[in-house]
Amino acid sequence: MRPASHPRVRFTLGCAALIWAGGSLAFAQDRPDPAKPYVERIAGTDLKFEMMPIPGGTFTMGSSAGETKRAEDEGPTFTARIAPFWMAKCEVTWDEFEEYAFSKDIRRKEREKVDLAQQPATETKADAITRATKPYADMTFGLGNHKNPAICMTHHAAMEYCRWLSAKTGKLYRLPTEAEWEYAARAGTSTAYSFGDETDDLGKYAWYVENAEKPQPVGLKQPNAWGLHDIHGNVAEWCIDPYDPKAYARFAKSAQPVAGPVVLPTPKEYPYVVRGGSWDDDPDKLRAAARTPSNPEWSVQDPQRPQSIWWHTDARNVGFRVVHPVEEQENLRGVRSLVVKGKGTR
User: What pTM did the predictor assign?
Assistant: First the structure.
């Protein structure tokens, strides 16, 4: 039963029925089939990306004591129950991220003299989302743009991109929880990598320190069993959770599978979790259970004082991908970044 605080309100916009539910706007007639992939198109652009269905289920989160290169914060293991969702087939590219971060959509409307009073409600809502401040340098750092994964954005910036994308498309997009990310990365396996325990085949699935010197265009390596490319390597991916090395111990106290385990965002800028390892990492960082916390050293070269809440000057191996829940879990409804510039919450 839906809680009274999140009523479903139906109204029409042209010929499409819209539903407002739990803080998200969705096109009722275009609701994807939970068992099938779908293609999302960003209105007003030629940009599109594919979302892959991730079936619900339970899995053992974390790594066993015998896993090679295991870290202490990967345990104790516990059973998590994950609701079905879609995850982006590939990491968010510069083409997609720049549309939001550099206000390309708004500038296009200005050039084309769009009557803002007549635009769809989704566009009005998207236009109102705060945009990133101008970076002091080219945040690609010459490592490639366009089909390459976007890099160097903070957790706050990735969260705000998801808010913009949600408004723009009428579907709820967000960062994955750590549990959702690991569940999707494993794709039904319990091994160190989605393809097994050994690293002999790692180069078939991942860009990492032994075969890459910079981020690579997304989708060139083999996907895992659930169709996700670059889930190991290329760029490490933001999760919604703050990093808590003791979270697993709390979840492990439950005698039953933990439904949708997550640590909720706080106003602090650090530390948040990235998963999957990157082009600049050794194989152990690419394991499905491996966790990496962000830290202020990711912005050492930022000359701004206070430092930007949008850009990391020294996180050239960090990006993200998005998820779209079939039905949002209650404790994540309405969750957004709480970071505010100049509040001294680092």
Answer: 0.90
Q: How far apart are CA 67 and CA 42, in angstroms?
A: 41
Give phi and psi for 237, each to the nearest 5.
-120, 130
Instruction: Please give the backbone phi and psi of residue 192, each rounded to the nearest 5 degrees, phi first.
Output: -60, -35
CA distances from 123 to 116, 126, 130, 332 (A): 9, 5, 14, 24
Instruction: Express each pLDDT in 212-240 by its tens digit.
Output: 999 999 999 999 999 999 999 999 999 99
Residue 329 tokens, joined: 């879990």
CB atoms within 10 A of CB 254: 13
The packing angle between helices 155-169 and 94-101, to 10°, is: 90
Range 33-332 has CATH code 3.90.1580.10 = yes
CA separation for the pair 188, 84 (Å, rounded): 13
What phi and psi, each to the nearest 5 degrees, are found at residue 109? -65, -35
